[in-house]
Amino acid sequence: MDIFDFNIDEFEKTVDDLLKNISSEELLEELLDNGLIIDEYDSECYYIGEDFNNMWVHKIETKNFIKKVQMLFKKNNEIDLLEAA
Amino acid sequence: MDEEIIGYHGTKKELVKSICENNFIVNEDKDNNLFLGSGIYFFYLCDDAIDWNIKKFIKIFSYLPKWELLISKYTIIQSTIKVKQEDILDLDEKDKLYKFELLVEKIKGKLITKPEYIRAKNKTAAIINMMYKRNLITKKMIAKTFIEQINTKTFDAFKNYPRKMFCVKDKSIILENKEKVDISKEIFESIVYFYK
Predict the structure, then answer these.
(1) Is B6 on the interface with A (CB under 8 A)?
(2) pLDDT tens per residue, range A8-51
(3) Same domain for A32 and A6?
(4) CA–CA separation, A71 vs B117, rounded Å?
(5) Of A20, A62, B80, B193, which residue is the least packed, with the fewest Cβ within 10 Å?
């Protein structure tokens, strides 16, 4: 028998008791010990958000992406200019 | 009442002998945690395990394999699991999922002042692992259906493809492991169709 066999009131009470007896620091530490991953890219990435499955975009990739778009834009402009000439 | 379940596990060819002779080894490596926490993962359908192998192959070699190449590197273990109904935590059941959501939300509420938690990955696995270590969850397996988007060329309604998986937490419920050798090329072709 575990907490998922409890009725909803017992379930909530057990979870509340657990969280009452632990500080947020201790809880975070315990979750880290159990596989929680704090993304090491923190300082090197842009964080997109929880709604997007915790997506991170690496700044290097973003730079390359912007460069590619700029190159394409430049190339297209050159073609336009050639056509105009 | 005991229930007998057949599960399918995609794996590397070289691991077959060890798994069939000595059972699975639960890898406690933090990076190896999937969404249901530490344990041995199975699909209810063999097709999904083949698909898993294809995905693994693509992840490592970056191209879609031919059938002969795939089966030379990866295979399927068919496992027989015997477990009591009350020892299964099926998160497809609404009341169980509701409780799990409550648990996740309450933990999120407790950690509201910790932005690193909001950005963290592997939350559900870490929560499940923690609850097991504290003996607050003692079920021998957890099951859940996950939805994957596949490239159907017909109706949008067919794009959402469900895959039901389960994670064995107590490997004593695994009675037998054997390599599934009778997989047809036809099944493989039907799976890779959706990759093209």
Answers:
(1) no
(2) 999 999 999 999 999 999 999 999 999 898 866 555 555 544 44
(3) yes
(4) 38
(5) A20
